[in-house]
Design brief:
Length: about 250
Amino acid sequence: MSSVNDRGRRDFLKKSAIAASMTVAPGVVLQTLQARAEPRTTAVTSKVRWGMLIDTNKCADGCNDCVAACDKENGIDLVNKPEGADDALWERQRPHWIRHVKLKDNITGRITNLPMMCQHCEYPPCVDVCPTGASFKRADGIVMVDRHICIGCRYCMMACPYKARSFIHAEVAEKLTHTPRGKGCVESCNFCVHRLDNGQTTTACQDACKHKAIVFGDLNDPGSEVSKALKQYPSVQIRDDLKLNTGVRYTNI
């Protein structure tokens, strides 16, 4: 009899939890357990190519939301300046996965603000020069660094035309589980790969941009938001002359 009662209580609690998740407040709907994103169970393939379009007209001068969100998402904000370090030197050497860049048209004088990160090239120079294979490109177009075999030679940093990579000069006392980091390794934007491999479809910088300047998605899917945006707006690649076929495109430059 007790087992029947226990089972009944468990069923009641389960139903109550589901009901509570749907009635927290009027107009508010919480995700149920079944709707949560699940970790990847299959290998990535070239059917998907992740990429983004950035509308520079929407990038506000002085806005730092995407940089702050990237730092928090990847634990870069946990790194503090070493005691006694020179401020200017630290600013040059501290990790930057996204940098704000200003471009000036010498003819019109127009100034354009844009975020610069790893461009996730189809033909990445960083991969070509890496002597250990630590720099590599996944089948879905994401360019990454394997920290286990990175020897810190920094050839990839010299080869990158976008100055998109950082070198970790000091010991890292605090780090996030999904973004392991360590002294002597190179790192850069990875399109929040830990999110994508757990069923999510957005990046931290995209979510944080209140101006909606960043559209992210599958470049191979004609129905994705980023593909629709690329069809609607003329876009350019930074250093298009290098023919790298970047995964990051810009409009209104």
